Structure formats: structure tokens, C-alpha cells
Amino acid sequence: MTVAMAQRVYEEGDPDMPEEFAELLRRMLTHHLENSTNPHYTELLSHLWARGMALAPEERLKTTYAKLMQQEVEHGVITSRILAGLGVGPIVQPIKQYLFHLPIDTFCDMAYFNALGDRVGCYIGETWEDVPYRPLLNVAERLHKDEVFHATFGLSNLRRVCSTPEGLAEANEKITIWWPAALDMFGRSDSQFSESYVTWGLRKLDNEALRRQYIAETRPLLEDLGITVPDDLANRRFL
Ligand SMILES: [Fe+2]
User: Which fold has domain 19-223?
Assistant: First the structure.
């Protein structure tokens, strides 16, 4: 089954919405990191705010970072609102993706978090422009544009880090931690839900195809900065 099953766009509360589609939608959005009702997400945002404000090497960067963080809060509110429309209430769910638990000790770590972590959001999660569900369609373009801004901000900070020999040395050390963590955010290649999401048009590609696309487009960006990117299978937890 390759052609998306859902041939039309469903509205919120649509009586014609197939239950299998609604179940997959609930599952995808419940597993989605950004949710303002989830105290673990709020805790993560507080941690990222504190790290960003403490590590910014220049005051003006704090303004840009504040805008980024405001958008992450808004993304959480949007997800919780769409879930409410699907009959799902507040969520209390620890954050599974280990990239979000990696230590952010230096500005280089902060740069990698946005440059690689938020960049994953541009491939998986904030890619809803063709999803046959109106509430998601209405926000898809905005969410994707925001994540591109977050990833671009990260890359420009990484460029700054790599502009000194010490910074480049640190970036080449830390990439061995952040690269596998970013690739593992795409999930297992054999995930049974990954295919169902594609079948129902909730995703364009499965986990492995999205991960390959990310690698093909992100690896050259890092190599252009002088970073030696490790093998894609090195230090991975999920293949
Ligand atoms: Fe983001």
C-alpha cells in the first residue's frame, strides 16, 4: 500500500474520519515532544532557557534565542490544542529522545543542539504540509518555517564556534556525541508505525528514508565548517 489512504482532508470532529486514521494521529501527536501540558516539556524549556542565557557569547544573541524559545512554547500550545480536538487531554510523559538529555556545558553544545536537534524537526515532526487533517494543515507551514529558523540559528552559532582553532577542536570532539544522537531521533528503521504513518499521509517517508535525507543534506553543511563527521553507524542506539 503506497498511495495515501486518506483521499480527502478531514475537519476537526469529522464524523467520516476513519478510526484507524484518528488513532494514528493521536499516537503521532501524543509522542510529539512539544506539548505545553506536559511538565517534562516545560522543564526542558526552562533548562534550555537557562543554558541559552548563560552561554550566549554576545548579548544580542539572547534576543534571537528568546524569540526561538517563545516559538517552542507556542508549538507546545498548538500541539495540546490539536490533541484536545481529538479528545486527548493533558499529558505527563518523560522525554524519550536522549538528545534532549545530553549535557549542554558550552556554547558549542548549544549550537549543536539547535543546528542538529532542531534540524531533525525540519524532517520529522514539523512536516505536516500534506497531512489530510485541517487543524494540522493550518499550522504546518508556520511550524516548519520556525524550525528552519531554529536550525539556521544553530548553524550560524556553530560557524562562529568553528572560526577559532580551539572552537573547531571542540566541535570535532563533540560531533561524536551530537551526530549519533541526532540520527537516533528518527527512530528505528523497522518501526511498524513508520509505515502506517506514510500509508495514511501523516508522513511522506519512513524513518530510515527521512534519516538518509537528513544525512545527505546535513553532513556537507558540517564538513564545510571543517568538522569531521563520524560514520553514520558509529555510537548509534537505534538503527
Ligand atoms: Fe525548534
Answer: Ferritin (1.20.1260)
